[in-house]
Amino acid sequence: MAGLQAGAPTPTALTVHKQSRILEIAFSDGAQFRIPFELMRVYSPSAEVQGHGPGQEVLQTGKRDVNIVELEPIGNYAVKPVFSDGHESGIFSWDYLYFLGSEQERLWSDYAQRLQAAGRERDAPMVVAAGHACGNH
Questions:
Q1: What number of other Cβ atoms are within 10 A of residue 83's Cβ?
Q2: b or e along 88-107 (b: 16 or more beta carbons within 10 Å of the residue's beta carbon)?
């Protein structure tokens, strides 16, 4: 199993561009994406970002300048980035990276709408919620 879905495209090349803060990834079906680190951080599949169920997502702010300091392979199906803000609990499967790359425009739009709805600015510092005790932080 190379991705999480049988027959799904797998990476043929993966390059971390630290200066431009872009993950460049090419897939076996010919698709190529340049995914900003900020988008990866804002949409991290971790419980810290996604919550433990629908409606528990944590709106991420202040991530424009986040960098990837390490990219750890997870078997043959994913990578785990360590971000410069200390976040390192998200495991990005090949399927999820393909989704982020192919849906970037919609995801950026959704993010902008969520920021506006919350009355938050993209570059505002994160507000840390007190009392969360899931142990995933």
A1: 20
A2: bbbbbbbbbbbbbbeebeeb
- Tallying the residues shown for the chain, one arrives at 137
Average pLDDT score over residue span 57-68: 95
Report the alpha-carbon distance of residue 53 to residue 91 in Å, rounded: 17
Domain ranges of the chain: 37-118
> What are 12-38's pLDDT values in tens digits?
999 999 999 999 999 999 999 999 999
Indicate the SS3 state at residue 86: coil
25, exposed or middle or buried, with CB in 10 Å at 0-12, 13-18, 19+?
Answer: buried
Residue 3 amino acid letter: G
Q: What are the CA-CA distances from residue 50 to residues 22, 46, 57, 94 (Å)? A: 22, 6, 4, 18
Tell whether domain 37-118 is in CATH 3.30.365.10: no
Distance in angstroms (rounded) separating the CA atoms of residues 33 and 69? 20
